[in-house]
Each structure stands twice: as C-alpha cells, then as structure tokens.
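Q: My hope is that you can spare some time for a protein that puzzles me. Underneath my words sits a plain record pairing an amino acid chain with its backbone structure tokens. Those tokens are not coordinates but codes from a learned vocabulary of shapes. Thank you; the sequence and its tokens follow:
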Amino acid sequence: MALFNRKYKDSVFTDLFGSDRDGKKNFLELYNALSGSDYKLGEVSLERKIIEQSLYKTFNNDVSWEINGRLIVLVEHQSTVNENMPLRCLEYVTRIYEGIVPIKQRYAEKVYKIPNPDFYVVYVGKKGQSLEQELRLSDAFYTKDSSKLELVVKVKNCTDPKLLPIVKNCDILKQYCQFIEIVEQNYNRVFPRRSFKHAIELAMEQGILSDYLDRKSREVINMLCAKYDYKMDIAVKQDEARKDGIAIGIKQGIQQGAKQQAIETAINMLKNPKYSVDEISGLTSLPVEKVLELQSQLSNTNS
C-alpha cells in the first residue's frame, strides 16, 4: 500500500516494531507475546500496512501488519488510555481496507474476502491500569442497545516487567520499556536534544536496545523530539481552547452525550483560524469527515 508520506513522523515504537530493518522480527515477537501465539519468522506471511494518519498529521504511533490473513493494529500509549481508541481504530482500519479492496470489487455481487482485524493498545504509562482491559466502540453510542456495529480494542498494560508475562516473554518490548523510562527520567525541557542523547548513551551502557540505538541514534533523537513537540503542542492547544471557553463546551457535550453540542463547538472553532480540522476533530471527538462537512457548510453560508 503505497500511501506512506515521510512528513508523518514515526515514533520510536512505530520504527522499532515497523519501519526498522528488524521491524518484522520485533513485531512478530511482540504479537506472539500479546496473543499467546507461537509464529516463527519465515513460516508466516507478513506484510506491513501503512496509511496516512487522519487525526494527528505530524506524529504516528500506530503499527499495522497483516499476518496469515489477520490484520493486526498495534497502538502505543504512554500517559493515559484513550477511551476514543475504538473510534480511531475504526477510522484507521477502514482506510486500510480501502487500500486492500479494489473499488470495482466493492460493488461486485460476490463477497471480497478481507483479513480479520485485531486491535491492541500497548500501554507503557505510569498511571495505574488493570493488566488487561477492553475498550468497545458500542460504549460511545448514545444508547446501549443491540446495534450490530462493534469494534473491540484490547489494552495490554506493559508498565511493570516484574508483574507482566507479556514483557517477560518479549525481550524487545522489555528493552523498549526500559529505554522509555530512561528517556522520561532524563528529559530536560530546556535542552531536549541533549537529554535524549544522554538517555541513549545510558541505555547503550546498560545493554538496552544497543544495536538499534547504535545504528539509529540520530533518527531516534529526531523521533523523540517530534514526540515531545507533539505532546507540547497538544497541551498548548488544549490550554488555548480552555481559555477560549471551548473546553467547557466540549466537556458539557461529552457529559451530556450531546452530539449537537459538539457540532456547535466545532463550528465555533472553525471560525477561529488557529484551529485545524484535525485539531477540532481531536478536541470534539467528531470524525474528520464531519468537521470537513461543517467547514464546507460554513463556507457556503459565508459566500
């Protein structure tokens, strides 16, 4: 699927389990630990699936592989578990399927077979979480009923290597968690690149991701800079929205389950040029397509 655009910056997670020369091997080791399977490299069909990110256009922490007819979507989260992840995964997997199924086949009478999807969030944050939980798309519906549309994301807590067999059974994930902890402990907001370089040196001294960091130290520093710039940008945008009184509207909309409130909030944000469509989608939880529709309606009204 030739839809990858280099302006979308990989995270270390995405690179380590996807783009890197050992990404295929690392992914298989991680997937075996997450799913309890025992696939061997060379004995399975593995194909990377990469698409443009629809929500956050400067930072990518999603990894997708098709393995023996199953489509595996891995998402890394480090600070909090995002309860909107099922919706994000629905948008994500839809775009993957669009790249798999030829347009003509979507209207053919005969069914076109597509790979079964599995969704995992690899949580390596510090906030207390259960060892495993499930997030369901149906939890976001206004009314809990027998709706047929469902998507389940399995959240695997990989924070504590002493407690989790997932990390014990996956050395590359264990080392990744150790590296991220070193980065967090040594992060300096004033001199970020210097602190990332120091973290890499410390990790290599301890034999953590030694080969990977030796080969790609400069790229890893750039990826970490992009990640922390992204986190800072999101924090700033949230603060600006709060000052504009927009956050209050968002909170009320979520609490009341009122789609109309979210739409009205999005319209107000669209009138302010400092908010992009992606940011409005992320802050209001409205799909990008809906925000674009509102933007078009607003333009027609003003013309």
